[in-house]
C-alpha cells in the first residue's frame, strides 16, 4: 500500500539551538573509561550489543554505523560521569519494576555541574539537542518523558522527548531551559528509549516520529496531560425526566456513569458505554456532566472482549517434531541468550502449539511474551488459541477504539499481562519482564510499515531481543529468504517440522495451464477442471476456498472503440470498477467516481469492464454453483469490526460452503473440512517489477494450498496459471521450500539483492515533474560525493520513475542504493542528506526507505 508518508523534513531544520555533544546512546562512540562498563554492557541494558554482533550482510544486521565517518567527529567527548553507581545487579531490578527509573546521574554531581536533558523531536531529523534542566525539575525529569522546550525560531514551545539525562559541563550554562515537563511518569523504559534511538538512526527517521509509532496516540493524548478530567453526573441529572428525554446513546452513557457511582474519564466512559466521543460531548454541552480535574488514577476497566470464531482447542500431546522443536526453544530460553530461532514447519505442522508451550515455559518464570501476527484476519483464531491457554492475554489490533488501546497498554505496562498478541506495532508492547518474542508467519509483508518510520517488525524484534538477551522465535511454512539465509550463515538456528500433525499428507497440487485453450472456460475465470472439482467437493459436503488476489469487479474500464482507459487523474493508474454502487475506484489513493456509462473520450456507448476482481468472481461462482452458500472476504467486505469473526465462524460451523477472497484467506486459517483450494490466477504477482515477485508468488500459493488437507478427509489444490513451468510455481506445487530457496538465493546472488546485500530506496516526489526530477538528480550527486568521501562500496541506480510514476497528484522518482554492507549504505545516505535542503517553493519531498519491501 502506498499510504501517507510523512515527508522527510527536508525543508525544515532552520536554526536550532545547540546540537548536542552527545549522540543518542551509542556506547560504541564513547571513549573507554568514560562510563562504567555496566552502563553500556549490562545484559539487556540497551542496544549496545546489537551493533557489534550483527554484521551479517542482508539479514537482521543492525547497521549501527560505528563506521559512520559523517557522525564520528561529533561523537567524541561523550561523557557521562554520573552513571558510575550502576551495577550489573541493578539490571534485574529494573526489569522487575519497569518505569521505576534509575537514580538520576547528578546524585554524584558537584556544585557547578548542570543537569542536561537530551531531547529529540518529531520534525527535526537530527539531534538530540541539549537543554538545561532547572533545579526544581531535576528529580522529576526522566528519559521517556515529554517536555516543552524552545526550538529554533518558533514562538511556542515545542514538544520533545527526553532520551537522556546527564551532567553537562560549565559550557552547558548557555543552554536553553526545559520549559515544562509534560508527563508524570516515563511513557517507556530505558531499553525502549534505546530502541527508539537505534530505530531513528537505522531507519533515518526523526526520533520523535519513532516515539509516535511506539506509544499509542490515545496514551500520548491522555497520559500527556499531567492532569486528567474526570466526569461525574451533574446534579440536574437527579431528575429522571431529564435523563429520559435524552437520545439513546447519551442516555446510555449517562446512566452508566450514574450507576458506576464514581468519576470516570471520557475515554473510560467510552469503553464502558461502547460509544464514541460524540454523545459524551453532547452531554457536556448540555451541562449534564460535571468535570473535575485530578491526578490520574489507575484504570481498571473491563474491555469488550470479542469472541473468537468458535474453534475449540485443548492442549495436545506433542508430536515428536513438536517436542524436539520445543526442546531447542526452551534450551535457548534457559540459556538466557539472545538467540534467533527459525521454526520452519510445513503448513499444518502445529507451530501454534509449539509457540504456546514455549510461552508456558516463559510464564512459569514470571516473564511474558509477545506474539506478532500478520493481520487482523488471522487474529480471531490465533487470539482464541492463546486466550484459552493463558490467564492474561492482551490482544492488540487495528480495529480497537483508542480507549481500548489505551486500556490494554496500561495493563501491559503494569505487568498484568502474560502474552501480547498483535500486529507489527505490538513489537513495542511495554511488557516489564519480556522473556520471548515470536513472529508467526514471519515472511509476511505486513510486518513492514509503509509510512514513517518505515520499520520492519522482524528487525525491530531482533534488536529488542538482542538488547534484552532473550530469544527471538520466527515461524513460517515459507520463511523469508532473509531468515532462511540467516540460518545458512550461522546467524539463526534452524528448527524444522517437515510433516503435518498426525502424519497427514500434504495436499496434491494440480496445475492448470491456462495457455491451453481447452482448459479455459468461455467467458469465465474458472477452468473446466476447477469447476468439476468444486462440484465434486460440494457433493461430498466438503468446503472450498478460492483465492483471487484482486479486489473489485473489473480491474480495467476500457473503451473498445478508441482504446481509452479510465484512469485516476492523480495517479494515472487504471480505475477498478466496483459493482456495488457502480463506482470506479483508484486502489492507490481511493479516488472514486461513478463508473461512466459511456466512453468519456469518444462517447462510445459500450465501455468494457476487463480484468477480474473478487466481485466478478463472486458473480461467476454464484451462477455456476447456485446451491452453494458463498461468502467473499476482501478488504471491501471486511471493513466493519468483527466481520472476520462472523464469516470465519460461519465457515467453521458449516453454514458456508465456499469462501472466496484475496490473500487474507490464504494464511493461517485452520479448517479441517476444506477439501479443495482453487487458485484462480497464480501469475497475478509473478510479473511485478520487483525482485521479490517470485518469492511472494511462492509464498502465496504454498500458503493457500496449505489450507486444505488439515482434517481426516484429505484435500487437493488446483492452481490456474499461464506460467506453469515457472520455478516459483513448480516448487510451490511440490511443497518444496528448499528447492525454491536454493534457486532463488542463486538468483539474488547475481545482483547482490537481499538477503545477500542490502537495498535502500529514496522516493522523491513533487508537484512539478521537472523540478522533482532535478531534485532527484541533485540528490544523486550528493550521494555520489558522499560515497566517494566515505570510500563506500555502494551502487547507485536512478533516478528513474518507479512503476507508479504519479501518486495522489505528485510526480515520483526513485533512487535505489545497493551494497553488500548495510553500514556503508546507511552512512552514505546519512552523509548525503544531512545538509540537503530543498527550497520550499519547489514543493518537493523525499522519503528514505531502508530495506524496502515495496518497489512500486
Ligand atoms: N500435537 C498435536 N496433536 C494433535 N493435533 C495437533 C497437535 N498440534 C497441533 N494440532 C492441531 O493441528 C492443526 C494445525 O496446527 P496449526 O494451525 O498450529 O498449524 P501451523 O503449523 O500453524 O500451520 P500453518 O502454517 O498452516 O498456519 C490445528 O488444528 C491444531 O489444533
Ligand atoms: Zn472511446
Ligand atoms: Zn489515485
TrEMBL record:
Catalytic activity, EC: 5.6.2.4
Cofactor(s) demanded: Zn(2+)
Biased composition (Pro residues): 16-26
Catalytic activity field: ATP + H2O = ADP + phosphate + H(+); Couples ATP hydrolysis with the unwinding of duplex DNA by translocating in the 3'-5' direction
GO CC term (a single one): primosome complex
Family matches, as PROSITE patterns: HELICASE_ATP_BIND_1
Keywords per UniProt: ATP-binding, DNA replication, DNA-binding, Helicase, Hydrolase, Isomerase, Metal-binding, Nucleotide-binding, Primosome, Zinc
Binding of Zn(2+) 2, residues: 568, 571, 586, 589
Biological role stated in the UniProt entry: Initiates the restart of stalled replication forks, which reloads the replicative helicase on sites other than the origin of replication. Recognizes and binds to abandoned replication forks and remodels them to uncover a helicase loading site. Promotes assembly of the primosome at these replication forks.
Subunit structure: Component of the replication restart primosome.
Family: Belongs to the helicase family. PriA subfamily.
UniProt name for this protein: Replication restart protein PriA
Amino acid at each position: 500500500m502506498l499510504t501517507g508518508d510523512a515527508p522527510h523534513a527536508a525543508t525544515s531544520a532552520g536554526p536550532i539551538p545547540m546540537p548536542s555533544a552527545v549522540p543518542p546512546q551509542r556506547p560504541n562512540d564513547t571513549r573507554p573509561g568514560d562510563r562504567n562498563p555496566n552502563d553500556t554492557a549490562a545484559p539487556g541494558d540497551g542496544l549496545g550489543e546489537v551493533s557489534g554482533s550483527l554484521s551479517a550482510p542482508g539479514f537482521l544486521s543492525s547497521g549501527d554505523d560505528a563506521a559512520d565517518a559523517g557522525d564520528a567527529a561529533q561523537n567524541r567527548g561523550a561523557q557521562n560521569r554520573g552513571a558510575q553507581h550502576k551495577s550489573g545487579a541493578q539490571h534485574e531490578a529494573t526489569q522487575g519494576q519497569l518505569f521505576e527509573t534509575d537514580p538520576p546521574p547528578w546524585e554524584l554531581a558537584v556544585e557547578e555541574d548542570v543537569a542536561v536533558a537530551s531531547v529529540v523531536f518529531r520534525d527535526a531529523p537530527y539531534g538530540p539537542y541539549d537543554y538545561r534542566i532547572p533545579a526544581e525539575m531535576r528529580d522529576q525529569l526522566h528519559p521517556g518523558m515529554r517536555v516543552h522546550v524552545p526550538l529554533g525560531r518558533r514562538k511556542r514551545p515545542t514538544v520533545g522527548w527526553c532520551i537522556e539525562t546527564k551532567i553537562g559541563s560549565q559550557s552547558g550554562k548557555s543552554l536553553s531551559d526545559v520549559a515544562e515537563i509534560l508527563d508524570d511518569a516515563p511513557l517507556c523504559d530505558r531499553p525502549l528509549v534505546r530502541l527508539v534511538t537505534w530505530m531513528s538512526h537505522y531507519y533515518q527517521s526523526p526520533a520523535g516520529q519513532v516515539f509516535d509509532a511506539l506509544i499509542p496516540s490515545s496514551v500520548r493524548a491522555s497520559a500527556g496531560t499531567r492532569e486528567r478530567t474526570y466526569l461525574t453526573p451533574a446534579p440536574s441529572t437527579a431528575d429522571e425526566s431529564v435523563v429520559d428525554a435524552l437520545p439513546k446513546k447519551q442516555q446510555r452513557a449517562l446512566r452508566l456513569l450514574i450507576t458506576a457511582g464514581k468519576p470516570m474519564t471520557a475515554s473510560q466512559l467510552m469503553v464502558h458505554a461502547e460509544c464514541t466521543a460524540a454523545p459524551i460531548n453532547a452531554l457536556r454541552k448540555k451541562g449534564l456532566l460535571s468535570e473535575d480535574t485530578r491526578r490520574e488514577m489507575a484504570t481498571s476497566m473491563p474491555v469488550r472482549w470479542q469472541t473468537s470464531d468458535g474453534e475449540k482447542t485443548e492442549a495436545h500431546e506433542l508430536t515428536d517434531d513438536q517436542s524436539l522443536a520445543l526442546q531447542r526453544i526452551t534450551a535457548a530460553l534457559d540459556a538466557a541468550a539472545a538467540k534467533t530461532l527459525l521454526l520452519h514447519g510445513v503448513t499444518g505442522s502445529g507451530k501454534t502449539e509449539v509457540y504456546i508451550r514455549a510461552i508456558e515455559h516463559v510464564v512459569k518464570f514470571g516473564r511474558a511474551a509477545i506474539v506478532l501476527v500478520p493481520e487482523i484476519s488471522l487474529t480471531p483464531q490465533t487470539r482464541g488459541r492463546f486466550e484459552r491457554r493463558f490467564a492474561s492475554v492482551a490482544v492488540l489490533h487495528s480495529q480497537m477504539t483508542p480507549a481500548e488501546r489505551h486500556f490494554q497498554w496500561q495493563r501491559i505496562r503494569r505487568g498484568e499481562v502474560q502474552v501480547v498478541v498483535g500486529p507489527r506495532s505490538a513489537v513495542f508492547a511495554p511488557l516489564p519482564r519480556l522473556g520471548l518474542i515470536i513472529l508467526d508467519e514471519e515472511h509476511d509483508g505486513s510486518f513492514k510499515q509503509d509510512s514513517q518510520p518505515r520499520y520492519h517488525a522482524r528487525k525491530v524484534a531482533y534488536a529488542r531481543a538482542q538488547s534484552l538477551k532473550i530469544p527471538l522465535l520466527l515461524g513460517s511454512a515459507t520463511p523469508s529468504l532473509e531468515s532462511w539465509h540467516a540460518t545458512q550463515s550461522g546467524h539463526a538456528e534452524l528448527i524444522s517440522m517437515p510433516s503435518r500433525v498426525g502424519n497427514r499428507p500434504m495436499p496434491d497440487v494440480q496445475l492448470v495451464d491456462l495457455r491451453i485453450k481447452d482448459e479455459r472456460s468461455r467467458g469465465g475465470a474458472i477452468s473446466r477442471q476447477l469447476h468439476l472439482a468444486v462440484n465434486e467437493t460440494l457433493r461430498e459436503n466438503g468446503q472450498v476456498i478460492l483465492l483471487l488476489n484482486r479486489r473489485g469487479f473489473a480491474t480495467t474500464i476500457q473503451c473498445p472503440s478508441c482504446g481509452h482507459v479510465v484512469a485516476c487523474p492523480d495517479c494515472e493508474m487504471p480505475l477498478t470498477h466496483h459493482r456495488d454502487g457502480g463506482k470506479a475506484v483508484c486502489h492507490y489513493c481511493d479516488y472514486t467516481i461513478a463508473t461512466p456509462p459511456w466512453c468519456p473520450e469518444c462517447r462510445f456507448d459500450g465501455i468494457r469492464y476487463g480484468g477480474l476482481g473478487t466481485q466478478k468472481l463472486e458473480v461467476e461462482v454464484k451462477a455456476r454453483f447456485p446451491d452453494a452458500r458463498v461468502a467473499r472476504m476482501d478488504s471491501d467486505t471486511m471493513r466493519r469490526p468483527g466481520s472476520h469473526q462472523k464469516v470465519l465462524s460461519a465457515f467453521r460451523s458449516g453454514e458456508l460452503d465456499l469462501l472466496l477472497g484475496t490473500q487474507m484467506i490464504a494464511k493461517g486459517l485452520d479448517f479441517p473440512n476444506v477439501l479443495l483450494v482453487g487458485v484462480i490466477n497464480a501469475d497475478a504477482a509473478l510479473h511485478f517489477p520487483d525482485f521479490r515477485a517470485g518469492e511472494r508468488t511462492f509464498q502465496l500459493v504454498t500458503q493457500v494450498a496449505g489450507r486444505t488437507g488439515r482434517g481426516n478427509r484429505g484435500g487437493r489444490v488446483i492452481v490456474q496459471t499461464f506460467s506453469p513451468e515457472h520455478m516459483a510455481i513448480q516448487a510451490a506445487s511440490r511443497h518444496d521450500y528448499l528447492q525454491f530457496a536454493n534457486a532463488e538465493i542463486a538468483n539474488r546472488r547475481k545482483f547482490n539483492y537481499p538477503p545477500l546485500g542490502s537495498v535502500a530506496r529514496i522516493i522523491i516526489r513533487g508537484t512539478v515533474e521537472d523540478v522533482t526530477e532535478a531534485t532527484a538528480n541533485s540528490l544523486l550527486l550528493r550521494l555520489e560525493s558522499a560515497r566517494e568521501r566515505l570510500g563506500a562500496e555502494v551502487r547507485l541506480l536512478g533516478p528513474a520513475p518507479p512503476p507508479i510514476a504519479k501518486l495522489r497528484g505528485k510526480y515520483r522518482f526513485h533512487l535505489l542504493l545497493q551494497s553488500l554492507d548495510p553500514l556503508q549504505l546507511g552512512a552514505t545516505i546519512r552523509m548525503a542528506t544531512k545538509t540537503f535542503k530543498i527550497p520550499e517553493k519547489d514543493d518537493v519531498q523525499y522519503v528514505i526507505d531502508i530495506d524496502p519491501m515495496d518497489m512500486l
